[in-house]
Input
Amino acid sequence: MSDLTLNINEIMADIKRVAVSSGRDPAEIRIVAVTKTVPVENIRLAVSAGLNILGENRVQELTAKYPLVDGAEWHLIGHLQRNKVKYIVDKVSMIHSLDSTALAEEIDMKMNVLGRKMNVLVQVNIAEDPNKYGIKVNEVMDFVETAARLPGIRIQGLMTIGPYVSEPEEIRPVFRELKKLAENVRKMDFPGVEMRHLSMGMSNDYIIAIEEGATLIRIGSSIFGAR
Ligand SMILES: *Cc1c(COP(=O)(O)O)cnc(C)c1O
Output
């Protein structure tokens, strides 16, 4: 077996084991294979090995790879500039990084032209890191209420990028807070809003993210090797 297949098998085994020990159904946890800087041949191998959600954080890289890979759906996971929305709305099945009202309005406008809705996650800057994108915790409720009125987007959950920590365990409170926030949003019952996804956890900390309720784990280097 190739390294890639071994890596994928190991992550899938982790998902099963950690989900079961946390009382969760492993089937509700999906891997988003993060393909930034990864050559197309390796992406194709990952798809053959069963990974059918691919994540890119740059529009240009996504649109370049998109026509070259079959059998998978693409998610945009990085900050999206408004003027680039038009390049991806017909290519991605989810945007994890909704982080402003202006962006929500732009996506809405483009989706209305296509006559479809885009699945989006609201990116939350839990640690209030000034160098990170994302809605502040205390603004999430108002943001969701407003964005939910746009017919071209379907809010499906929350996403966060954990702060850099030396000890993965330090990140647990961040994931726990994202989950609590999602539960609070769910209780508001905003029309059209479904808090079905928590996008959290990367190579370093996906085990903890699964324990804390992640449904989409975004994994790059543990699959494809160091960048
Ligand atoms: C690169 C990236 C990942 C994956 O990071 P790894 O540590 O390689 O698993 C996840 N999410 C986002 C937003 C990224 O940019």
Q: What stands out?
A: DSSP finds nine helices and eight strands in the chain. The pocket of pyridoxal-5'-phosphate is lined by residues 34, 36, 57, 77-78, 161, 202-204, 218-222 (CB under 6 Å). The two ends are 21 Å apart (CA to CA). Residues 3-21 form the longest helix (19 residues).
